[in-house]
Design brief:
By secondary structure, the protein is an alpha+beta fold. It has a single domain (5-175), classed as Histidine kinase-like ATPase, C-terminal domain (Heat Shock Protein 90, 2-Layer Sandwich). Helix content is 36%, strand content 25%. The protein contains six helices and six strands, in the order αββααββαββαα. It has a six-stranded mixed sheet with strand order 3-4-2-1-5-6. α4 runs antiparallel to α6. Bound molecules: adenosine-5'-triphosphate and magnesium ion. Adenosine-5'-triphosphate binds next to α1 and α3. Adenosine-5'-triphosphate (ATP) is lined by residues 11, 15-16, 19, 43, 45-48, 52, 56, 62-64, 70-73, 97.
Length: 180
């Protein structure tokens, strides 16, 4: 179900959007030097109160009504810890939330990264009202994708219009060749 790191990232972004975030920063850093994959999602959503924060790593806790089980965050934490990495949440009510996870790159249980380009594209075009900042790095290269900047350049043309989607797809293909 959640066997790709990109699916976890998308899940964190969905949480941020549910929390009312308007600005979301996603960092993905793959370092062979450090033998580490690092991911972080930061938002300016409503944040978590103390009891949510305390319970957020418990798979039987969710503030969603009508269902009892929230699996997103506990699964990510479990995967990070299984893969010799770490997991951390910082959340301030009324300010926002940072969630970060790291994994040993060489760990045999590390799930596949998944398709970073498609993840960036799909998140950006399906949430046109949110400003995304993606920061993608390895030991040698880095790439940033800032949808606020892109929307300014588009001068009123929607980021989810077919011609823009086609352009962004090509742009990401070209610039993210170094990653994955
Ligand atoms: N970025 C965030 N900002 C504010 N609250 C958050 C954020 N991420 C998670 N939460 C809180 O933590 C709870 C647990 O999140 P988690 O993703 O594990 O489960 P869920 O979103 O409730 O359900 P699922 O992801 O399985 O659909 C959420 O219900 C929400 O209350
Ligand atoms: Mg969730």
């Amino acid at each position: 179900m959640m066997d790709e790191i990109c699916a976890h990232i998308a899940d964190l972004v969905v949480n941020s959007i549910s929390a009312g975030a308007k600005h979301i920063k996603v960092s993905i850093e793959k370092s062979n030097v450090k033998n580490e994959l690092f991911v972080k999602v930061s938002d300016d959503g409503k944040g978590m109160d103390e009891s949510t924060l305390k319970h957020v790593i418990d798979p039987f806790f969710s503030t969603k009504t009508g269902r009892k089980v929230g699996l997103g965050i506990p699964l990510l934490k479990g995967t990070a810890e299984t893969c010799g990495g770490s997991f951390n949440i910082k959340s301030i009510q009324g300010k926002g939330t940072d969630i970060m996870a790291s994994f040993q790159l060489s760990h045999p249980d590390l799930p596949p990264l998944g398709n970073v380009k498609d993840t960036i594209l799909v998140l950006s075009i399906s949430n046109p009202e949110v400003d995304f900042f993606f920061d993608i790095k390895n030991d040698i290269m880095s790439f940033t994708f800032n949808t606020k900047e892109i929307k300014t350049l588009l001068d009123g043309l929607p980021i989810n219009s077919p011609e823009v989607i086609k352009f962004l797809k090509n742009y990401l293909d070209e610039h993210l060749d170094f990653f994955n």
